[in-house]
């Protein structure tokens, strides 16, 4: 039974790493679930509760980055409140519509929001691109956090 639990823990971690770049999977949450399962299997000997709390904090940070990245990218361009709301709505819609949706929906949402307020197609396009860049940066940050979690986990098991 223990072997099956370890296989499940490792599978969750691997799926979680994939989920950091595949929008349909909640990557950091799956990684945390796999690490928590592994800690429990090992009676928290190599991964104590304190370290599990650190993993939980990293998970929350990585999860939150997704939701605020496009909005921050838009805000840096001096965009309107409507553009920020549009980017956030586009991000949420993009999560449910696959990789292309995740890449382009924040752009579309921010551009539509900015166009509603400014009626300037060029400015709306710039704001939309800023939202996409923000999301790309967030994906890189989320991947860095996920790989850090996996690295700490592997190190804790080895030592």
Radius of gyration: 19 Å
Outline the low-pLDDT stretches.
none
Overall mean confidence score, pLDDT: 85
First-to-last CA distance: 24 Å
Major sheet summary line? none
Q: Structural class, from helix and strand content?
A: mainly alpha
Task: Give me the strand/helix succession.
Answer: HHHHHH
Total helical segments: 6
Task: Give the DSSP E fraction (strand runs of 2 or more residues).
Answer: under 5%
Portion of residues within helices: over 70%
Number of strands: 0
**Shape from CA axes?**
elongated
Short description:
By secondary structure, the protein is mainly alpha-helical.
Q: How would you characterize this protein structure?
A:
The protein has 159 residues and is an all-alpha fold. Helices cover 84% and strands 0% of the residues. The chain has six helices and no strands. It has helices spanning 2-19, 27-41, 49-75, 81-95, 98-118, 121-158. Helix 2 (27-41) packs parallel to helix 6 and helix 3 (49-75) packs antiparallel against helix 6. The longest helix has 38 residues, at 121-158. The radius of gyration is 19 Å and the shape is elongated. The two termini are 24 Å apart.
Helix and strand layout, with pairings?
Blueprint: H1 2-19, H2 27-41, H3 49-75, H4 81-95, H5 98-118, H6 121-158
Helix pairs in contact: 1-2, 2-3, 2-6, 3-4, 3-6, 4-5, 5-6
Feature tags:
single chain, mainly alpha, 84% helix, 159 residues, elongated
């Amino acid at each position: 039974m223990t072997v099956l639990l370890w296989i499940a823990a490792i599978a969750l971690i691997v799926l979680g790493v994939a989920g950091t770049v595949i929008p349909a999977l909640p990557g950091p949450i799956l990684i945390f679930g796999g690490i928590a399962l592994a800690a429990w299997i090992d009676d928290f000997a190599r991964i104590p509760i304190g370290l599990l709390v650190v993993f939980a904090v990293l998970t929350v940070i990585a999860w939150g980055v997704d939701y605020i990245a496009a909005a921050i990218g838009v805000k840096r361009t001096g965009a309107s409140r409507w553009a920020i709301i549009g980017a956030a709505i586009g991000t949420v819609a993009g999560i449910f519509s696959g990789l292309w949706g995740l890449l382009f929906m924040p752009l579309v949402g921010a551009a539509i929001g900015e166009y509603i307020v400014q009626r300037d197609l060029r400015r709306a396009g710039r704001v939309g691109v800023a939202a996409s860049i923000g999301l790309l940066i967030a994906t890189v940050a989320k991947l860095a956090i996920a790989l850090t979690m996996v690295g700490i986990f592997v190190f804790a098991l080895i030592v």
